[in-house]
Amino acid sequence: MSGRVLVGVKRVIDYAVKIRVKPDNSGVVTDGVKHSMNPFCEIAVEEAVKMKEKKLIKEVVAVSCGPQQAQETIRTALAMGADRGIHVEVTGKDYDMLGPLQVSKIMAALAKKEDAQLIILGKQAIDGDCNQTGQMTAALLDWPQGTFASEVSLEGDTVKVVREIDGGLETIKINTPAVLTADLRLNTPRYATLPNIMKAKKKKIAKVKPADLGLDMTSRLEVLRVDEPPQRLAGVKVETVDDLVAKLKETGRL
Amino acid sequence: ILLFRTLGTTSSPAFSERSSLVGGVLDGVLSAFRSICGEDGVSLGEAVREQHGKDESVHRCCPPDVVLFPRCVEEVSALAKICSRHRLPIIPFGTGTGLEGGVSAVKGGVCFSLRNMDQVLDLHQEDFDVTVEPGVTRKALNAYLRGTGLWFPVDPGADASLCGMAATSASGTNAVRYGTMRENVLNLEVVLADGSVVHTAGMGRRPRKTAAGYNLTNLFVGSEGTLGIITKTTLRLYGIPEATVSAVCSFPSVQAAVDSTVQILQAGVPVARIEFLDDVMMDACNRFSSLSYAVTPTLFLEFHGSEGSLEEQVNTAEDITQSNSGSGFQWAKDAETRERLWKARHDAWYASLALRPGCKAYATDVCVPLSHLPQILVETKEDLIENRLTGPIVGHVGDGNFHCLMVVDPGDPEELHRVHLFVERLARRALAMDGTCTGEHGVGLGKRALLCEEMGPVAVQLMQRLKDAFDPRNLMNPGKILLPREL
């Protein structure tokens, strides 16, 4: 086994920012808005770095797809302990429509090129909320998948994954190479320290284009419009229980 | 001390308790308020007013007559001008996490809730400074900074507003290494009672040190809203430690624990946190969290640094504790084990409350020079036993600051009275040992008389003159820090 782990990291609008929809309803405002690494991707990086610290794997490679700013996100992963980065340059309309199908094609191609033993992704991105990339990547590679992982243990050529599912927790054992997606409780990501941020500046980020990997980024989807959730209306106070019952009947709820 | 008359009161005061003068004037100004901060920015709702008339102390709720939600400093200034013109009290409100009744609107008036001003402005990474608005809490700031390798270490426990922390000169477990708010505020933007806006170190300025003019910045730090409304604070940031080690050690006596602390500091170990828990607290923590620590004075330590320096720090500290009859020295580097080691300290408040379910807790807060700490702790523990009071002790022993978490039955006036007297004796004991009646929590409502004893009449007179100069109409948070002159 190569001992190499690929981790996908996505640049998204920071979770603490109040999102605003553009006046023309074509999307959300991103100019001048704080961006950072998708929180689930942080958890994925942390898990990979922990594996390396325990000497279970040899190298952590951080991958991000997007314009030049995607390199900032890779630098954060490097500061957390990833060894090197790969920036897949996607810009313009291709970037606007970049989604799980395109990213999973990229991850699959890179996994083959880099002879990866594991791919670890966040379970979903907080902007798209698709929760598809990990699963599609596994399908394209015909690899097993351990999704919604809240606990991961490498055991030789297999991985034991405890998954968070609706009914509780499910434990599975899958062979490597495999795709894992990180859920919230998998770990608590470390904060990058200044010395590690300095060291990260010296680590290498290779730049490639999808075409170099023989990939077509065309999307089959078209965004028609984006709207804010409906404004919460003020409640109505009533004086008596009878009034309450009458109101409920009036609005068809009783 | 006012607070224990209030601890027994369970009902909140009625709307009519405000002064009728304020009531009559208020209706006239509401439309002026609305024209400045919008319909949504003015609230008369009873629940909203009650929420803004209390904090996490045991002081009863004194709701303001109206709560305003300004969105920027221009609105704060315009609103303050109106209040000034109509002689309405102004009470600034951050997160309501104070411990001394600082936001009680004792004379009614107008609460300025600053939570909508919640932007992190002007981060300068290479200069290690950032400017924030009052709606930014310390945890929100540290989350914002997480990709930069920087953090703001002052940690009073609660997720408090940073401007509120400046207003109360907050401190915390990290003070022994990183200082309190006094050492970490570089500049403030403040709206005065008459609406004028001042930058205490000059607009936008953030040199790491200065010798320019009177230190206005530190005058406002700790002024508890009585001199102006803080609308921006520029803070000193630090590098996130490369690595952290936590340690625990038990001692046969309070003296041994304090001696170890003094020697660790003297040895130049830059210990980040050094917390003392007494035997009563250790027992409470064992019961609450199912731990099995020795029921004896215990030190909880935390070290920050590079991998190499940590080893040296921990070894030096361990040697010192051993030479002071310390036992059971345990340390840990990974996050999960550190959490477990420090669990007792983190749960101290809840563990104390769990000693007597149904009771409330009040944290005392005094600070003395380190050399007096053993004596004051021994005398205080004797006082607790003699007066049959429940008061487990937790202390920021590196600063000489400690808290007795007084667990008291709010329905028992006799016990309340005993606690009241105990707290007064404790404060006077600290004053007699060259200390202060409040290390961290502030004066607020309950310690105004003690402040006079601590400072002496000349200093108090000077404070009163300053207050008169900044706020001649006594509109800024009346009833706090200084006793009214009429009494």
Protein described:
The complex is a heterodimer of chains A (254) and B (487). With 254 residues, chain A is of the alpha/beta class. In chain A, 28% of the residues lie in helices and 26% in strands. In chain A, the strands form 2 sheets. A 9-stranded mixed sheet of chain A has the order 9-8-7-10-6-1-4-5-11, sandwiched between helices. In chain A, strands 2-3 form a two-stranded antiparallel ribbon. In chain A, helix 2 crosses helix 6 and helix 4 packs across helix 5 (133-141). Chain A is globular and about 70 Å long. The mean pLDDT of chain A is 95. Chain B has 18 helices and 19 strands. Chain B has helices at residues 3-7, 20-37, 46-51, 73-85, 138-144, 162-167, 175-178, 181-184, 216-220, 254-266, 279-289, 307-323, 335-346, 348-355, 373-386, 413-432, 448-455, 457-470, and strands spanning 42-43, 66-68, 90-93, 110-113, 120-124, 129-132, 150-151, 185-191, 197-199, 229-236, 238-239, 243-250, 273-277, 298-305, 327-332, 360-363, 366-367, 393-396, 401-408. In chain B, the strands form 4 sheets. In chain B, strands 12, 13, 14, 15, 16, 17, 18 and 19 form an 8-stranded antiparallel sheet that branches. A 5-stranded antiparallel sheet of chain B has the order 5-6-10-8-9. The model of chain B is unreliable at 1-17 (pLDDT under 50). The A-B interface holds A 14, 16, 34, 36-37, 76, 79, 188, 191-197 and B 140, 143-144, 146-151, 239-242, 306, 335. Chain B: GO terms for molecular function: D-lactate dehydrogenase (cytochrome) activity; D-lactate dehydrogenase (NAD+) activity; FAD binding.
Which properties best describe this structure?
heterodimer; A: 254 residues; alpha/beta; 9-stranded mixed β-sheet; two-stranded antiparallel ribbon; 26% strand; globular; B: 487 residues; alpha+beta; 8-stranded antiparallel β-sheet; 5-stranded antiparallel β-sheet; 19 strands; 38% helix; 18% strand; disordered N terminus; transport (chain A); mitochondrion (chain A)
